[in-house]
Amino acid sequence: MSNENDPKQLKRELDWLSAAIMGLASVVGAGIFVSIGVVAEISGSTAIAALVVAGILGACNSVNLAQLAVSHPVSGGIYEYGYKYLTPWLGFTGGWIYLLSKTAVAATAALGFSGYLLNNLGLADAGLLIPVAEIAVVIITLVVFGGMRSSQVSTIIVVSITIASLLCLIIAGLLFCFSHGWGKLTFSGINSYQGATSFLQSVALMFVSYNGAARISMVSEEIVDPKKSIPRAIIFTVVTTMVLYIGVSLVSLGSIGAEAFAVATRTNAAPLQAVANSFGIPLVSNLLALGAVTSMLSILLTTVLGVSRLLLAMGRRGDMPKFFAKLNTAGTTPEFAVIFVGIAIAVLVLIGDVRVTWSFGTFGALYRSFITSLSALQIGDQERLYPKWISWFSLCSSVVLAFCIEWYYWTIGLGLVIVGLIWRFIFRQLYTSENIQLITKD
After folding, report:
1. Residue 143 included in any domain
2. pLDDT, tens digit, 9 for 90 and up, residues 34-77
3. Does pTM top 0.85 for this prediction?
4. CATH classification of the domain holding 253
């Protein structure tokens, strides 16, 4: 484990393309395999327009993250930005919400991986859901424990398979739709207050799907030449994500229609499988199933990476136990933070039915976007890489979209924020008292 000569900073091992793959791995998962169907149920074929608008807003938020990550390239992402540019309370709550929501998402991804795998093997009713999910958590935790280099190789493999499966779906879908016509792809327009409300709600729900840049900022301390690499990685992630999302949504709604797509989402949470099956090409369906499995693994892997780096930053500042800030002797892994995240995910998996609603994820994403935009506005003109209006636009849009999600998710989210603030107040008091006692003894 660690010793007294531990390095204080993580080693920089990621180039811009490796960082971009990390971002893609955290995006190409539930966002594309499930959430497009959720949005299609709300706004029909207008979901495609919602995807584009959400992509533009996500790009603005990503530009803010790029600006902040270049100006302050350390582990911790939004937690560190809030601390440096705003107030400790806002920095802490941003990190706290990220910690809770992403840990639960990772548990959901582990169960999703298990479910997809067992369904494809014909073992869905064998009572293996939780054991297989736990095995996945252990393996991924060990991979991350091995350092950024082993995590990088694993991420490249799983994200390559996932993207290949989606490209196969898009190509086969375009051929199918052109040969059968695009009659099921209808646009009703936004011609009423209810229609506008549904559209904005869809934009808010899809906004979460463009949050890969947040994962890149979490590991910015490990990126080589951050001033050049981070903006490239973030822009590449956002553009590639938007192209994949639009392509998948076009062939999905064009092949089976918005209503059938929404039903497939509601009944078995696997709408793209229904789309692939409609083509009548077994190879496409099988490859997509494999891509769904690897996408869940990629979410699990990048979440363990990102959340462990957040715990590292919190341990450094004294908002979490300081042993989370301990690195291995090679300076590549916050060992105790990785172990803790793995255990936390494994505990949540034991519930067997972890349902983190997409709307709660939206609350977390919009809350983080608000703090990110506010932080980016504090950067001086001499350090600024991008126009200030982008930060203002991102700030205002996050506030507007926040009012488009259901009130009870606000209640849950704000309740968790209060719990976090209570934890911070009590822990900081204990932390300060402990330091005073150590100084007195010395």
Report:
1. no
2. 677 777 778 777 888 888 888 888 888 888 888 888 887 777 77
3. no
4. 1.20.1740.10
